[in-house]
Amino acid sequence: MPLSPTATRELLASLGHQPKRFLGQNFLVDGNIVRKSLELARVAAGDTIVEIGPGLGTLTAALLEAGATVWAVEMDRTLHAHLTESLPPEFPTTFHLLEGDAVEHPLANLPATGATGEFKVVANLPYAIATPWLDAVLSGPLPARLVLMLQQEAAQRYAAMPGSKSFGAISVFLQAAYDVEPGHNVAAACFFPRPDVESRLLNLVRRPVPFVFSPAFKALVRTCFQQRRKQIGALLRARVAGDGAIWRELLRADGLSEQIRPEAIPTASWQRLAAALAPLA
User: Fold this and answer.
1) Which residues contact 14 (CB under 8 A, 6 or more apart)?
2) How far is CA 252 from CA 64, 189, 244, 269, 273, in A?
3) Are residues 105 and 69 in the same domain?
4) pTM to 2 decimal places
5) Which of 9, 104, 240, 241 pairs with 275 at a CA distance of 20 to 30 A?
6) For the segment 150-170, what is each residue's pLDDT rounded down to a tens digit?
7) Angle at CA 68, nearest 5°, toward 63 and 74?
8) Which of 61, 71, 69, 5 minimizes the C-alpha distance to 35?
9) pLDDT digits (tens, 9 = 90+) for 250-259
């Protein structure tokens, strides 16, 4: 069970540790949310789970107690030391902890043999690294499921629909590979220290045939969204080799014009453009 706010304060004090805002250190103190995270991820004995920023180990312990093998990455040296002392004695073969930056180690050094099989991600993501970390994960290998604790703003951006102001490059990359299933809102009171914003458990399930964009095309999409008020025709003419016949025909086939803006192009159309423009981009 998670520690209460009082017990969390006492443990942090015993470690001589002050929560670091820049690392997104808001510790979960609500057992219902821990249970909901495992429920959404459908965690079962024998599962392989990647966790980002395990902190004091509340979620980590619940995953291990459910019979999962956990590969975790923690950047904070004090918390890494605490986890190293507290969890391996009880879970000597199923808990693997890396000290490092999750953006550099997005899957916590999960072995290649494990990464080629099924694995899931269950994590309370620091806001500052959420998008670059997710972008790295979407390069593959792809988890079967991701249940991510995020600030509401980030969760809304990732799940945004074409035509909305929140729809962006990361929305395209994510939704090409994952379906967004019903998640769960999380109140600020569920954390210590209490954050200034509400959070959400984003529930992502890998599509039957997920699409992974190439690094070159992802760079093109990012550039287009950085100039999201410009028309797609002007953006592609400036950045894609050839006379434009291929992308013009693809846009027409999808009922889209050259005057459409990047934020209004559906994810499926971006996928078709990526497949067609690979030799030209």
Assistant:
1) none
2) 52, 50, 12, 11, 12
3) yes
4) 0.92
5) 104
6) 999 999 999 999 999 999 999
7) 60
8) 61
9) 999 999 999 9
